[in-house]
Amino acid sequence: xxxxxxLLAGVGYGLAALAYLGLSGLILASWxxxxxGRLLLLASLLSAAWGAxxxxxxxxxxxxxxxxxxxxxxxxxxxxxxxxILRLRRxxxxxxxxxxxxxxxxxxxxxxxxxxxxxxxxxxxxMPGLPRSVGNLGxxxxxxxxxxxxxxxxxGARPEDRWAIKFLCLGVGGLFVYDFYLYANATLFGAFDAxxxxxxxxxxxxxxxxxxVSAARNPDWAAPVGLSRSMAFHTASLLAAGIYLLxxxxxxxxxxxxxxxxxxxxxxxxxxxAALLLVLLLFSGTLRARLRVFLSKHFFxxxxxxxxxxxxxxxxxxxxxxxxxxxxxxxEALARLVDSPGGALxxxxxxxxxxxxxxxxxxxxxGTEPAGSPFTRWLASRQWVIDLDELERRPELYGDxxxxxxxxxxxxxxxxxxxxxxxxxxxxxVLKHSxxxxxxxxxxxxxLKVAARQAxxxxxxxxxANQLIVARQFxxxxxxxxxxxxxxxxxxxxxxxxxxxxxKHKHNPEFQADMLETVANAxxxxxxxxxxxxxxxxxxxxxxxxxxxLLSEVAASKxxxxxxxxxxxxxxxxxxxxxxxxxxxxxGHLLQNALEATxxxxxxxxxxxxxxDQAFVEVADxxxxxxxxxxxxxxxxxxxSTKGAGMGIGAYECRETVRALGGTLDxxxxxxxxxxxxxxxxxxxxxxxxxxx
Length: 693
Prior knowledge:
This protein is α+β, with helices and mostly antiparallel strands. The chain is built from 21 helices and 13 strands. A hairpin with a 3-residue loop joins strand 12 and strand 13 (about 675-680).
């Protein structure tokens, strides 16, 4: 009947055998036929054989005990690997220092002698063997040599190389430290400590993952560890559970030992509580997810070839002209990183919020998100890539995040990637589900976040370049305006002189009277233009404006058109704070465009109203309309006109006027359906009841 101690010891040695057999399989599967790879494989195989033979010995299944010979060969293989690493770190042709050469010679002789002593009972069973005390002393010396070599390997490595070998030093050093204690104790007291010997297999199994990590960090020993993430997760979970149970068993033992009459009760309660806690931890989804991320980050090679992915991403961004095409290329480049078939990109447009700037293979996804919405604030503060599938399955991971309905209900929407510029949310990209069934994890998220920051830099540079171009065009326009003012002044002076001398040279009184009237009107008009140009060069004062009066004035100024707009006035008490003349021009421009674009039989509506503490002005027509591409790329582009005599700044000036007043200008149009402009302005509560006209 096997005692409980020997049963537990056999289990420990069996675990060690399995651990090193698995390590050997990994090394063999990725072997690069390097000498140090062969030595690591040999040491791992001998450690697995040692564990298996120790298991059979503990359970009394072997008539003889060959574990001494196998143990000597195992220790010798680890010593040979350490010597080889030391030699690799020295220049070619440079011998090891004399003390290390002495240790190598002594170690070789000691391993050979102990190996012969261990094999003697198998080869010559009738002859008396080496006394066990002498064998134990020899094993003590071997462990001391091993510890010396471990120290030399670690101390001799450069600081930047120590991360690659520290786990090997910890693992092999841990084996030698434990063996030193075991054999030193046996040498002093003439017998092995049964409990220390029984725990030895568990110790050997615990250090095997450390050696595997070091092998993965040294591609010259073996290729990166190739076991599946699922297998590593379950192995790590079982290993952590085993360590936890060992500590809990030790604590329970001390409770029983020092608990007096209540010792057995306390131990039972403690063990049950510890087991219950373990079950709760194993079924914790958060803990399991964090363990998977830890294993993936520290034990496995990365999924992506980052050099190749970065080259492709940069090439996609750089190809083609700048401008709107860059927005499309940015969406495409991010989508291709995760094998997504399509994506759409939103950028912030001042007070108008985040509007779709472009798309790649996803034309039907559209929507506008306010700049200060909870969704955009969450993206800006967390800077996370949102997995919409995970958000639906586990909303608690995202806290109070609530995506807008137009994203949540979009067919095929998968990821939302923030475009961060420093700490500012420049925009975001929505990607479709991957065609290649890419599983979103921490690595995909990190790659997308870094790539999105790169794309944000390109987009910010594009905006800065466009703003510089517009500023230069306006600079040129301002110079032209100065010349126009100068010419107008000369013309006014000439006409004024003509008017002063007209009385002396008239022949036909009626004709001269008409001429004088016409010239006077021309002078008056030019003086008005001159005054207007002068006034625009300075900052005009803001005032409270009655919206109803302003709309009536705008409608009256368009009486020359055959088509009369339908006017719907707001209450007389509805006021906004604005530069009255600039706002009249802005609304007048929209109304004139609507009248010009509407064919006979159509209708144009000019309406003012209040909603949600905002004043609104709507200009709607049933004209020819505009397509989405024209609105996005040309409508508000300064100096881009579809009219032969136009300057192309009307719509741009209108939008900038509204934005300067703290409002927004939205456009809804489609070819053949007409166009609807909607101006939104903050109410002026202090101006209710009167206005400055």
